[in-house]
Amino acid sequence: MTQIIDGKAFATKLRAEIAAEVATLSYKPGLAVVLVGEDPASKVYVANKAKQTVEVGMNSFEHRLPADTTQEQLLALVSQLNADPAVHGILVQLPLPKHLDTESVIATISPEKDVDGLTVVNAGRLASGAEGLIPCTPLGCLLLLQDNISDMTGLHAVVIGRSNLVGKPVAQLLLQQNCTVTMAHSKTRDLPGLCRTADILVAAVGRPEMVKGDWVKPGAVVIDVGINRVPASEGKTKLVGDVAYAEAAPIAGKITPVPGGVGPMTIACLLRNTLTAAKRLEAAR
Ligand SMILES: Nc1nc2c(c(=O)[nH]1)N[C@@H](CN(C=O)c1ccc(C(=O)N[C@@H](CCC(=O)O)C(=O)O)cc1)CN2
């Protein structure tokens, strides 16, 4: 019988643990979230981040900037947040409007406050096994896998997708777990055949229901990172992952649903990273 991995329940437990630890501190960790523009999905994510930050006892600093914000204005805000001792974590919500240079915005964030783990410094730390801050969604995937597989040593993990936000860091984390990791992408030959060799299959491509049931090895653990809004009946929309869930679930040993799988772990891990960053920064003061 396939086991559904309940990311929502895991995230709730993780937030309770974070809140309990925050309550023991003599200071309040502070998270600054920067939103540029009016992207409807981003507005919802940022509102949820602010709400959950306050719920675990941290300070939330929201910065909502208009869509025509200039690169200079955004960089000035990030620099101001870098220097603010009440701010322990900085997150710039992605995607940014097209006229802004995402790379240089991320590069301006102090690596010690980079709770998204997206700076080159934190990517390098992850790749070299040094202590840093790990991107939130990949960290969420890792925690769910560790909760469901007692030892990943020698397992073949196939990661579909090579983004800096998910695919690359997930592959690094699985390598650290002693998996044999294959990174697959749009140019990979015989993707279905490769996926069928995976004990752990992580789908992070952003293409609705691309991974079919017959791509899944019987008994494999399937982690679906995709969050795709697609048309449903009666003019409504629904959320689906990168995995064709109805086909894949009966074949997989364990699988994350969408919604309710990896998604909720993203914000819980953001809070965990903020707590980690706050403890390190305060210890260094
Ligand atoms: N700076 C960043 N930008 C973005 C990130 C990120 O980690 N850092 N990730 C995504 C969006 N994201 C957080 O920002 C995010 C996505 C999904 C969820 C979530 O809880 N999903 C739910 C469904 C929610 C819904 O109904 O729409 C689920 O999967 O169950 C939380 C956060 C891009 N930008």
Automatic annotation (TrEMBL):
GO cellular component: cytosol
EC number: 1.5.1.5, 3.5.4.9
Catalytic activities: (6R)-5,10-methenyltetrahydrofolate + H2O = (6R)-10-formyltetrahydrofolate + H(+); (6R)-5,10-methylene-5,6,7,8-tetrahydrofolate + NADP(+) = (6R)-5,10-methenyltetrahydrofolate + NADPH
Annotated PROSITE patterns: THF_DHG_CYH_1, THF_DHG_CYH_2
Any GO BP annotation: L-histidine biosynthetic process
Pfam families: THF_DHG_CYH, THF_DHG_CYH_C
Binding site for NADP(+): 161-163, 227
Functional summary from the UniProt entry: Catalyzes the oxidation of 5,10-methylenetetrahydrofolate to 5,10-methenyltetrahydrofolate and then the hydrolysis of 5,10-methenyltetrahydrofolate to 10-formyltetrahydrofolate.
PANTHER family in the record: C-1-TETRAHYDROFOLATE SYNTHASE, CYTOPLASMIC, C-1-TETRAHYDROFOLATE SYNTHASE, CYTOPLASMIC-RELATED
Protein name (database record): Bifunctional protein FolD
